[in-house]
Structures are given as structure tokens and as C-alpha cells.
């Protein structure tokens, strides 16, 4: 399935999702994208987080990784 919103960057979509929850795991974000018709990969979300360190933060609890807005 093609992305119905090709002009929307992954980082903006992740930022929008995290506005409504204090933190989330990548699989939760991917589930949201699937439900809304957006396409992304785990690697794409990781790249967006690394590219925008002033926007996104990462918390680790054991082996789990949580993303949040700074």
C-alpha cells in the first residue's frame, strides 16, 4: 500500500502521535501508522529520532525502549 500522505515526514507523524501520549514504544507507533494508513519502518522511526535529538528523547527500561517528546 502506498503512503496516502507522501509529503508528511516520518518525524512529523511520530511527533503528532507522541503529542497524545507521554511515551510509546516503536511497535505502538507502527500499529498507529498501520491503522491510519501511513507507512513506516522501525529503522525509519529510529532514523527520525536520531535526526531530531532536540525533539525526541529515548528512555530505556531493561530491554524496552520508549520514545517521548522533549
What features would you highlight for this structure?
single chain; 70 residues; alpha+beta; Arc Repressor Mutant, subunit A; 43% helix
What does this structure look like?
The protein has helices at residues 10-18, 26-36, 42-51, and strands spanning 56-61, 64-69. The chain has 70 residues and is α+β, with helices and mostly antiparallel strands. It has a single domain (10-69), classed as Arc Repressor Mutant, subunit A. A hairpin with a 2-residue loop joins strand 1 and strand 2 (64-69). It is globular and about 30 Å long. The relative contact order is 0.23. The model has no long low-confidence stretch (mean pLDDT 90).
The largest β sheet comes out as: 2 strands, antiparallel
Number of strands: 2
Mean pLDDT: 90
How widely separated are the two ends? 32 Å
- Count of distinct structural domains: 1
Ranges with pLDDT <50 over ≥5 residues?
none
CATH architecture tag: Orthogonal Bundle
Name of the CATH first level:
Mainly Alpha
Q: What is the beta-strand fraction?
A: 15-25%
Order of neighbouring strands in the sheet with most strands: 1-2
CATH H-level superfamily: Winged helix-like DNA-binding domain superfamily/Winged helix DNA-binding domain
Give the overall form: globular
Order of helices and strands: HHHEE
Q: Into which percent range does the helicity of residues fall?
A: 40-55%
Radius of gyration from the alpha-carbon trace, in angstroms: 12 Å
Amino acid at each position: 500500500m502506498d503512503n496516502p500522505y507522501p509529503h508528511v515526514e516520518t518525524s512529523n507523524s511520530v511527533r503528532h502521535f507522541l503529542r497524545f501520549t507521554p511515551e510509546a514504544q516503536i511497535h505502538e507507533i507502527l500499529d498507529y501508522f498501520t491503522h491510519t494508513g501511513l507507512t513506516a519502518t522501525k529503522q525509519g522511526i529510529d532514523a527520525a529520532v536520531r535526526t531530531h535529538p532536540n525533539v525526541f528523547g529515548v528512555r530505556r527500561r531493561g530491554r524496552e525502549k520508549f520514545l517521548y517528546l522533549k
